[in-house]
Design a protein that fits this description.
The complex is a heterodimer. By secondary structure, chain A is an alpha/beta fold. Chain A has 2 domains: 69-108 and 121-190 and 295-334, Periplasmic binding protein-like II (D-Maltodextrin-Binding Protein, domain 2); 194-286, Periplasmic binding protein-like II (D-Maltodextrin-Binding Protein, domain 2, 3-Layer(aba) Sandwich), CATH 3.40.190.10. Chain A has 12 helices and 15 strands. In chain A, helix 4 (128-141) crosses helix 10 (305-320). The longest helix of chain A has 41 residues, at 2-42. Chain A starts with a helix and ends in a 12-residue tail after the last helix. Chain B has one domain. Chain B has 14 helices and 2 strands; from the N terminus they run αααααααααββααααα. Chain B has helices spanning 2-9, 15-24, 50-62, 65-132, 138-161, 167-194, 199-236, 241-265, 271-332, 351-373, 377-405, 409-417, 425-457, 461-485; strands spanning 337-340, 347-350. In chain B, a hairpin with a 6-residue loop joins strand 1 (337-340) and strand 2. The longest helix of chain B has 68 residues, at 65-132. Chain B is elongated and about 110 Å long. Classes of the chains: A alpha/beta, B mainly alpha. Chain A binds chain B through residues 89, 96-99, 103-108, 110, 112, 115-124, 146-153, 156, 163, 165, 249-250, 252-253, 255-256, 259, 276, 279-280, and chain B through 130-135, 137-139, 188, 192-203, 205-206, 332-337, 348, 405-407, 409-410, 413-414, 417-420, 424.
Amino acid sequence: MNARRMRASLRGWGGVGAMAVVCALAAVFALLLPRTQPGGADGPTGGRGAAQGDQARAEACEKPEERSLAPSSGDLDGAAVQKIRKRGKLVVGVDQNSLGWGYRDPNSASNGSGSKDSASNGSDLKGFDIDLARAIAKDILGDETQIIFRAVPTDQRIPKIQEGKVDMVVRTMTIDCDRLKLVSFSSPYFQTGQQVLAPKGSGITGYDDGSLAGKRVCSAKGSTALEHLEADKADGTLPASTNIRTTVPNQLDCLVRLQLGEVDAVVTDGALAASQAAQDPTVQVVGEPFTDEFYGVAMKKDGADDLIRRVNQILEDYRKNGWQTSYDDHLKKYLGASSGPPEVAYK
Amino acid sequence: MTYQQQGGAAPPGPPVPTMPAAPAVPPQAPPPEPRSRPAAPDPGPPRRTAWAEGVDRLRAAATTEPGRLRVIGAVLALLVVVFGAVTAWQMAERQTAADDVLNRSQPLSSDAAEIYRALADANTAASSGFLAGGQETADSRRTYEAGMKLASDKLVTAAANSEPGSASEKTISDLNRLLPQYTGLVERARANNRQGFPLGGAYLRYANSKMQIMLADAESLYEVEKGRLRSDYADAKPYPWIAIGLGVVAVGGLGWAQRRNYRRTNRVLNHGLVAATAGVTVVMLWLVVGHSVARAGLNESDAHAVRSLNTLNDARIASLKARGNENLTLVSRGAETKEVGKGENKKSVDTFDYDYKAQMALLTTELRAAEKLADDPAGAAPVQDATKNMLVWKERHEVARAADEAGDYQGALDKVIGSEAQEPTRVCFDNVDAALAKAITREKAEFRQAAGDGLSAMNGLVEGAAVLAALAAAGALLGIGRRLSEYR
């Protein structure tokens, strides 16, 4: 008797309780939904978010790659060009570690004739950037061999230009707004985008799909890759557990760290990532490029306007005649066929 | 007089009553010595301490001539025995230290220098191999392998000789851990080089940065071993003043006893005492002369051989570092710069070229010092040879730098690692290294000679001193005993 009454009363209270719980849950959902939505949208579509950020930044300095001086806008043979002529040598900062771009093939011209003479082999740098540098030397000095190559680590590119240690840097250097405050760029000569390089079967599938969570990512000091990593980690595009502390002087040093198991993935320009993958068949470029970037020739910011125009003039010709040959020679095997040089617009 | 107490103590004292008596009278037994002296029958003196008893007995003994003689004999014998023991102890210490100098710390500091040199040599060879191209030359390969073998061999010896828990032991185990890592990186660099990949260069740079850590370790090991050699020298060289002082006291005591003897008996010679004096004097002379000779030998080995050896080792390491930097200047192509000077003089220079110049300056001063330290023309000859080659090296280096500055990289490369006909700096470096190796071998032999002579001057001193002192002590006792027997 008693027990039945109790059950009945409980059932009654249970109904009320259930209703209360439902109400409370509804209230909680109503409160939380507007908060979770932007967060949830940020995860999977972070690329878009970053792209928007980029656009905002780009709008601030209006497309960095279209900020160079048109060749027709003034003198092509002023003090800066004369200085190089007077010296008789063009000093160019290049990379000697990027397959296809600027590198020294240790086995080039190796004739195997004897040990003593092998020292005289393979000192020439080769690559897409090197070809361009030679084309510039040929135009300014009339001789493509009158050139001094200086190897420049990634984070030394801007200081070397500012100190006047090199006339220009032709070294897979992305034109971006921050750098434009410090140096001047030519018009763009190559288009690429940041990509992730990871061992096959590592489970890493791209930059902003969350697969980098808990992974150690390597980048070069002073590279656009590192700038993106830092910015994206700060705004949550990258998982907080991604470790981006490993930075090296040159993007290729990242492949060394990757092979030694000191890092799990590398972020660098797609064009360079492909040349890394070409040196190790067990790693691959994963995911789509998550930025649009253009390489330019960097020169001094002040007092080199004539040289910038001159280089832009050289590039006008080079795009028509020389660019494709050089691409086919050095990059086609790593990057596939090309649709040609990027479109050019001046300031 | 003493017999009284001793005689009365044991036999007549009935032990049965005394034993219970002690606990039976606890109230008036505060003095601590009632149990030590169960001689209860004597009620007065038992309250005195054993020490006081002994002093009394001695004082009493000293009032009679036989008693005095006994005391003198005991003191003399003790003095001689202590003198012998201290001499043996102090000389054993110096002998061990000298032996350590010859057979332990000097070879170990040499080994540490060798480890350092071998590592730097291998690293230089690896960078030369890289400059030469994918197919490293047989020479650079051989140098690299020899360097690695030597370094790991010497590390085994060094590990066996380092004290457990010491800083050296840790440094050595660090080196043992890094060595295979380094060789692994170099092999990877080679494999990639052979395929024509710039990745090889990246591996080599990484290997080089590992090697810089190892070289710093090896340098600290070298410094520690040099310090140990210094302290072994410092332990071996000082005069054994305590032994000498005791010897003087012993001879003085023996002399005094004989004079006393002569005064009392008018006998000039007491054979025992004379023998004892002679024994002590011989030990003293042996001690002073032997140690002086040993000291001279050690000083000679220190002042000439070891100082020369250190200077030559430093010079050799400086030349290796200079060579490594010269190679790296070309490997890095101006990639690394550093700021030097202050204010208006501040400028950025190529790191490796700057280091090359610093090491060459060091090499110059070390070679000058080594030539000054060389004690004969035969010792100076290899040093002069090295200096001559170093000057040519500097000249050729300038040509190579000029070529590089002018954009002729190949020309610079030829001038640094090219074939004989191209007059490269490689030949100069090899000559400097060979000349220094020759000088080091010479100085090592000189060291072994001088330090070995020093050590052998102390041969038998410990045992001799012990035996002679024992004999002298026996002599003193016999001598006094002879006088004593006249009273029986």
